[in-house]
Design brief:
Blueprint lengths: L3 E8 L4 E4 L2 E4 L3 H9 L8 E11 L6 H14 L5 E5 L5 H12 L5 E5 L12 H12 L8 E4 L2 E4 L4 E2 L8 E2 L7 E3 L3 E3 L28 E5 L7 H8 L5 E6 L10 H12 L3 E6 L12 H8 L3 E2 L5 H13 L4 H7 L11
Parallel strand pairs: 1-4, 1-5, 5-6, 6-7, 13-14, 14-15, 15-16
Antiparallel strand pairs: 2-3, 7-8, 8-11, 9-10, 11-12
The structure holds aspartic acid (ASP).
Aspartic acid binds next to loops.
């Protein structure tokens, strides 16, 4: 019997149509996919499209969307051989990161894809991305939640959207590819997570954590910024962690007393601070420069070479699991699913 894939359609360019306000998600995707893929259908696994409601532009993603996705996967896990999530590219890297922490190593493939031009439009990349995802959905075991895009298979928690205009929209600046989809398909299984000990449990639904909206903030350093930003982060009791986007190897303005005061007050109030570089490639090396060494003495955590998306989602994940400030300090350096290089 042909393998059966469940396609979860969340919205995004791949299923959008032109409206008076610009591109917007539209339903009826199963039919449109079948029409667009025509002659290649017999060579692919059969599939069913489940449209999530409401269909969204992924700019509207919130952590509760990740909960909804895992709940939906849990409901259908036993009924299908593989899963594809169709998602807008804008926040795809957040969703693939969040799902990788929530699901861990999977015994069935969970692949995420989308496109830069809607399905059915001239020069669209939707068909090739979807054909690649369908070809991989049940044929080879892929334990990591992964992104399939422009002929590449990428670990979900290492991807970043790097272009709004090119078909090559995603990259993993600090990670090797998990696979290449060209004339031949080349998969690098050794780079993937170890197979889970047992088939993904009935308890998959327990992984659908409830996130605390607004619990994680991102503060990007610039040569000068309004001091009021600091105070509002300090006063927001809902905000329990901050990703600090620093310069180069993880350096901060260590001559700026307002900034240093903000940092020590943040930690005093037991808000976690993670140091991440603004550079696309490479990681932080706290202490390589005197201007960064102060962070280690202050219990600021190194974000290693994680992407912003992965660090943001890992903090949300740890908080949603109920970890407090001290527990996060202890667990942060555990590499949960290859989200940083060792
Ligand atoms: N704005 C769209 C979205 O993220 C962009 C895309 O899908 O490429 O939903």
């Amino acid at each position: 019997m042909k393998s059966q894939v469940l396609i979860l359609y969340t919205g995004g360019t791949i299923g959008m149509v032109q409206t008076d306000q610009g591109l917007a998600p539209a339903s009826g995707l199963q039919e449109r996919i079948e029409m667009a893929m025509g002659a290649s259908l017999p060579d692919l696994p059969s599939f069913e499209v489940l449209e999530l409601s409401p269909l969204i532009d992924s700019a509207n993603i919130t952590p509760s969307s990740w909960t909804k996705l895992v709940t939906t996967l849990a409901t259908h896990w036993q009924d299908y051989d593989g899963f594809i999530i169709l998602h807008g590219t804008d926040t795809m890297a957040y969703t693939t990161s969040a799902l990788s922490f929530m699901l861990g190593a999977c015994d069935k493939n969970v692949l995420v894809t989308g496109s830069q031009i809607p399905l059915g439009m001239n020069r669209s990349d939707a068909t090739s991305n979807l054909q690649a995802a369908l070809s991989l959905a049940c044929s080879h075991p892929i334990t990591d939640v992964s992104l399939v895009f422009d002929g590449k298979l990428m670990r979900g928690n290492r991807v970043q959207k790097v272009s709004s205009g090119r078909f090559k929209a995603f990259a993993t600046p600090n990670d090797e590819l998990l696979g290449e989809i060209a004339i031949d398909m080349q998969l690098h299984s050794k780079r993937m997570l170890d197979k889970p000990q047992e088939a993904n449990p009935q308890s998959l639904s327990e992984r659908a954590l409830t996130f605390k909206e607004g619990a994680v903030a991102v503060l990007t350093l610039h040569p000068s910024q309004p001091i009021s930003m600091y105070q509002s982060l300090l006063d927001d009791e809902n905000c329990q962690a901050i990703v600090l986007m620093t310069y180069g190897a993880g350096n901060v303005p260590d001559q700026n007393s307002a900034f240093l005061g903000f940092l020590s007050e943040t930690l005093l109030r037991k808000k976690v601070v993670v140091n991440l570089t603004q550079c696309l490639h490479g990681g932080v090396s706290q202490g390589a420069y005197a201007a960064g060494s102060i962070l280690s003495t202050m219990k600021v955590l190194s974000g290693h070479d994680m992407t912003l998306e992965a660090a943001f989602c890992k903090l949300h994940f740890l908080l949603a699991q109920g970890n407090d400030y001290q527990a996060i300090l202890e667990k942060w350096d555990t590499n949960l699913c290859n989200e940083f290089s060792v």
